[in-house]
Amino acid sequence: MNFDIKRSVSLYSYQEEFYLGKMNLEDCIREVSRTGATGIELLPEQMIDEFPVVTPEFKEKWFGWMEKYQVEPTCYDAFLENHIYKNRRCTLKEQIQMMERDIKLAHELGFKTLRTLVSTPMEVIEGSLACASDQNIKICLEVHSPFSLNSGWADGYMEMILRTGTENFGFMPDFGIFCKAVPDVLRDQARRRGVSEEVIKAVDEAFAQRVEKGFVKIKYDLNLGKANKEYRIANGEPQLLEKVKKLGGGEAALRYAASTFAYTWCDPQDIIDNIRYIYHTHAKFYNTDENYKETSIPIGEVVKAYKKAGYHGYLSSEYEGNTALNDTFDVDSVEQVRRHQEALRSAIEEQVEL
């Protein structure tokens, strides 16, 4: 199967250093270039000082950095802020205008895809399709754990794609849906917070059982909170929390057990089945060790599915392990991204039977 998989980095990966003022936007772009990645995924609300205004001065710097570091814009990460007023939610018209603003900014900065979140109402996406077509932007709905492809939730969006015939809306899988184990950095943080080994073992065993028998996938519901609650119940959260209590676990143990339901394992066949509608990918990771192995996500197995499907697009490293470390340790996002990019490069270049 013919594929063309390229490597990108979401600048969200450097959030720790960016927030602390240790790195600025150019620093982040430079570090991406040093990994050998050629794509830049931007969070404009956080990283453009004048947002939502893109000044001529910023545009000149932005495209200057792209040329200087031999990289290109890949994905514009949008956030639909529909609670900006104290007394009311934004109207549908206002939300569509906000989405159209981001689509136009994405085009102006050279992006071809725009990430939107699961909380974005479908009618806002549908109402923005004409603008996306005019601006040659593909709106990508992030498939973030516990959501998944080949599910009742995804079917709701597929219906809209097929009904409208749009080529400007699709999916952006996040590798967090391919966790075969609880991230080790989360487990270690639980230990630091006093969670017993007995509880940690019980949580690991419960997760392994969910992987083995298959997760019950989340359903489509306009009420995301309701859908998430039903998903957790269907996958055994009440039973696990009860077991943790019987093992003497306190609040920290219960929080740890509940947090593991934010991670899921989906069959990578989901990628193959939906490749026609996948325009960008978040290669989420939590910890890549010194041997270039992500400790909870089987990168080789997932990338093989993308190759088999004939994917043409970017895999964008997105480091999210910092929050399990920064309560005690200094975070080195630069090294983590470097390791992960090497793991991606190896998996993409590996000669395997498809």
TrEMBL record:
Signal peptide: none annotated. InterPro entries: IolE/XylAMocC-like, Xyl_isomerase-like_sf. It comes from the Bacteria. GO terms for molecular function: endonuclease activity. Keywords: Endonuclease, Hydrolase, Nuclease. The keyword Cytoplasm does not apply. The keyword DNA-binding does not apply. PANTHER family: BLR5974 PROTEIN (PTHR12110:SF53), HYDROXYPYRUVATE ISOMERASE (PTHR12110). This is AP endonuclease. It comes from Lacrimispora amygdalina.
